[in-house]
Each structure stands twice: as structure tokens, then as C-alpha cells.
Model the fold of this input.
Amino acid sequence: MVSDTTRLQLPTDHSALDLYLALLQDRLPVYVGTVSEVLGRVGQGTVRENLRDAARATIDFYCQILAAKLAVIADPLQVARLRQVLLKRGMGQHQAEENVARYLRLERDAGGVGAGVEPGAVARLLIGACINYAFNRLLMGESEIPERGEYAADIVRGISLG
Done:
């Protein structure tokens, strides 16, 4: 008979990094596809609606992967290995920020965003707030924080696009 503790243990040949990268490989294409579709709507809908949808996708993505990522970050050796993988593949949070900033520049050029708006700063605020939401949800539980869609809408309302 197999004990309960034996059934719950992960195979020893899989590090937290391996498990995180597998999760990332599964979830990242969906996230990138969703955000690409949303940010491809330049001149369609409102900028706030599009940013809200991108924020919601970002929140959903980080809610799915953050626990696994934190397990990697807890080990300095695994962080170093993760950094190597991300740098080699040109991956990281900066990609999402660059995509949002590119969208905002296009909207600014089309007149949908004020000329004084700094796309990079807005993108960093948006993506950072989404990651913060996922972290707080993981830490405090879903019942202790606003609903995801509500939070995404609040973030976008708080950003100056004039």
C-alpha cells in the first residue's frame, strides 16, 4: 500500500524551475495571444476598454503562474537558472510592458491618447499593478480583495491618458 505522503510528493527529478517553465510553456501562448489581439485594436473601441482587457488578461495569467514562480524565486540558484533561460529567450515582464507601450504609442499617434502621455510609464504602472493584484490574491485569498474585472477597470480608470 502507498502512503498518502508518497502519493503527494513530486518526483525528485523535477525542480521548482522545471515545473514553472512547464507551466509557463502551457500558459504563456494563451496570454500572449489574448494580449496581442487586444492590443491590435488600435482605433477600435476605447483605449480604456482595450487596456482593461489587457489588464484582465495579465491578472489572469499571473494568478495562474505566480505561486510556481515564487517557489523558484525562493531559491537563489534557481533564480540564476531562470534568469539565464529568460535572457536567452528574450522573455520577461518587460515584454508585456513593451507591448502595452507600443499600443499606447500607436493610439497616441492616432489621437486616441494625449500627446503628453508617456507610454512606457503607463505600461509599467499597468503591468506592475496587475502583478501586485496576483500577489495579494495569493497572499490574502480571493475573498479579501476586489474581483479581478473590477480591479482591472479600477487600474485603468486611475491612469491618465489625457
